[in-house]
Structures are given as structure tokens and as C-alpha cells.
Amino acid sequence: MTHWFQRFNRIWLVESVRRYEVEHGVQHHERIQTIAREQPTLAERIIVRAELLAPELGLGCSAQQWQQLYRLVWGVLLVLAIVSAIAIVRSALAIPQPISLSYALLVLLGLQFAMFVLWLVSLTTKAHMGAVGRLLLWLYRHIGRNPDRQQLQNQFISVINQYGLTTPLTSLLSHGYWLLVMVAVWLLLALHLSTNAYHFTWATTILAPETLQLLVDSIHWLPQQLGVIAPSVEQLWSAPDANLQLTAGRWLLSCVFWYGVAWRALCWLLSLLVLMKKLANVQVDTKLPGFAAVIRLLEDKAAARVVDADMSPPTSVTNKTMGAAYGHGEMVLSLDYEADQEWLMRHAQQPDYAGVIASHQDKQQLLHRLGEHPVARITVRINTQLSPDRAALRFLQQLRQVTQHLQVQLVQPSTADGVRMQHWQEQLNAEAIAWNH
User: Fold this and answer.
1) Triad 301, 430, 58: Cα angle to 5°
2) CATH 3.40.50.300-classified regions of the chain
3) Sign of CA dihedral 416, 340, 406, 151
4) Residue 375 and residue 397: Cα distance in Å, rounded?
5) pLDDT digits (tens, 9 = 90+) for 413-428
6) Tens digit of pLDDT for each residue in 339-348?
7) Peptide bond into 96 cis (omega under 30)
8) For residue 435, is it left (φ>0), alpha (ψ between -120 and 50) or beta?
9) Higher per-residue pLDDT: 401 or 322
């Protein structure tokens, strides 16, 4: 089980590095890439690269701080569970005696039963977080506020949603919390009944004795499996002696154990089994935006070591495989402004032309579209009259992460000088982006 949770933490770290590189560009570390290429599978290469790269980016330290915060929050929940248990037991026993057994059962088990019903209802809706899950998120947001921790939390939620872990994980947290509460309730109730003298009875105003006895028999089905005797309604009303009070106290403890502790423990165990099954199937999704460029970094060197000039057939097979994995076809777009208006008129209606991408919204929509429907080759036409600013270079880096091959075509108007063309060439060479003109 620990192995599966450790693997999830590694996948979470991969997602953190992937998002960082989508925003800031692919990080080139030859030493890290060399170590990662020694792994037998592509997924393991990506994971090892992320583990080695995370400290360089400051993500490893942030993840450790987030996990420390995670333990702190669970400490707060443990204290809250104990406080809740004390309040429940005192509410059940701190009333004038004799204490109604039906009232005591309602107070001791009613709240956790109501929360169980709400959990069942949440399974049929989109809000699978549950009350305890939402409480955890609220505590994470308000204890140790930090932008990096908030980002890690968003990445954590994204990963558990992506792999279908939200429902079993929040169910495990919810049942785990209420299991703590009910264990504390049972222990406190046993302590009170062992150190104080309480008198119990069956109290009702509108129910007939036969109806009340039928309810008692229904509730008693589980406790009697351990040989516990239920206190008779008639006997508690007519002759409530010391032995009958002892029976009533033991029966109350037995009901709390079966319908509180054992029930929640079973639900917690089932949630754990479902979560473990899903964790066993967690794998790196190499089709996500940002992985295409990383895969090229981790595969190019390996291919160079075993492929020479006389092995062109295997090379073409590899390229076909890559194309199948990262999309098909070609896309052409103009960045910010198309310098050749005649070319634009001829190609504006072509199916492979994405148009002039100028605004930030246009760029984000295109990246989202390519993330869902990648293409194998993208050609970006750039007017060399424009300056090679950081926004344009960052957008080219983002495009390179969602395609197999990115090519920049530098378009120089007849009236333009060659200085900016040279600037573009220098910047593209620095970013290792292929270009022509």
C-alpha cells in the first residue's frame, strides 16, 4: 500500500514539473536527462527526470512543506474528532436520570448516521468532495497561506480528478474521520459507564409498548451476534434492578460499537480497497500538453546512440510511431500579423490554416485545442518587422510542447531591413527552434 501512495506522490511531482514547463518552457539539464535515459521505460524516464528536476525548480521543497501542512491539518482534525466525541457523550449522559436509551442512541449515533446519508447522496452528484473533504480544503487554504502551496493544492486536485481518485479518496477521509470520532465516543462512553452509576429506561410518549419493543428487537439484531442481551422494555419499566441496569449499559456500548465503530471501519476498509485498486492503475499520461518536448529530449539521444546513416527504415518507423502518438496532419498559423497579404488571401480558406493568432485569448484557445487534438507538424509564420519579444518566444515554446515538429517561417517584407531578421534568427537559435525564410 505504501508503494502505491509513493507512486502517486511521484505522479503528482511529475504534474507539478509539467505545469511549470508549460508556463516557463522546457528545462534543459543534460546531466538529469542522461540519468533519466537509463530507465527502461518512457514513463520511468519522465518520473526520474521530474524527481531530479524538482529541487532545481524549487518544487521539491514546496511539496515537502505542503506535506508538513497536510500532517498539521490532520492533527487539527484529530483534535476536532476528540472534542466532538466529548460533546456527543456529554450530551447523551448529562441529563436528568433515568436516561432514556432511545434518546442516548439517537445522540450517540444520530449525527454520524446523518453524515453517512449525506455521503451517500453526494455519490449521486458531482460534488464528490464530501463535508470532510471540503473542510480539509478550507483548512489547507487558511493555514499557512502561500501561493506555492495553493498551486500545489490545485495540482493535487487536478491529479486526483484526472485519475478518478476523488471519490475513493474523499470517502476514505470521511469514513476515517468519523471512525476516529466513534472510537473516541465508544472509549469515553465505556469510561463513563465504568466510573459512574447511571440509570436507564425506555422513554416514549406516543409509541405503544409493542411498537417500542419491535424497534428494540430490530436494533438488537447485530449486538446479539456477540451474545449481548437487550434490556426488555417491560422489565425496565416495572423492575429496573441493578442487573438490568448493567445489561442496559453493556447493550448501549454494544450498539455504539456495531453501528458506530464497526460500521465505519467496514466503510473505511472498502474505500481503502477501492483507492488501492485505482492507485495501482495510475500511470503517467504522456498525451498531456508539455510532454511532447520532454519525450523528444529523453528519446533523441537514445536514438542517436543506436541509429546511423545506414538505418533509415527504422528511423522512418519511429517517426510514424511518434506521429501516431502525438497527432496527425499539419497546421499553419500567422503570429500576431501576416506580412504577406497575397499569401493570406490564397490560404485563408485552407483547412490547415489556423489564421492570425494575435491576442492572449487566441493563443490560449489554440493551445487548448492542440492539447485535445494535437497535430504532428506546426508551421508558424512570423513577420520579421516585429521584435522577438518574450511573449512570442514563450508561445513558441508552448507550441513545441504540443506537437512533434515545430517550424518557424520568417517572412520579411520587401521594405524591411535585415537587422530584425538577424535578431529573430539569434533568438530562435538560442531557444533551439527550427526556422527558415
Assistant:
1) 75
2) 328-436
3) positive
4) 15
5) 776 667 778 888 888 8
6) 787 788 888 7
7) no
8) beta
9) 401
Burial of 37 (0-12, 13-18, 19+ CB in 10 A): middle
Q: Which residues contact 22 (CB under 8 A, 6 or more apart)?
A: 289, 290, 398, 401
Residues recorded for the chain? 437
Does the bond joining 98 to the residue before it have cis omega, within 30 degrees of 0?
yes
Kindly indicate the confidence band of residue 179, based on its pLDDT and cuts at 50, 70 and 90: very high
> 356: which strand partners?
334
Span 59-84, average pLDDT: 76
pLDDT digits (tens, 9 = 90+) for 228-240: 777 777 777 776 7
Strand ranges for 301-352 from DSSP E: 330-335
From 3.30.450.70, 3.50.50.60, 3.40.50.2000, 3.40.50.300, which CATH number describes the 328-436 domain? Answer: 3.40.50.300
- What is the CB neighbour count within 10 angstroms for residue 85? 21
Q: Read off the amino acid at residue 154.
A: N
Residue 266 to residue 255: CA distance in whole angstroms? 15
Q: Give the model confidence (pLDDT) of 112-129 as tens digits.
A: 999 999 888 888 775 556
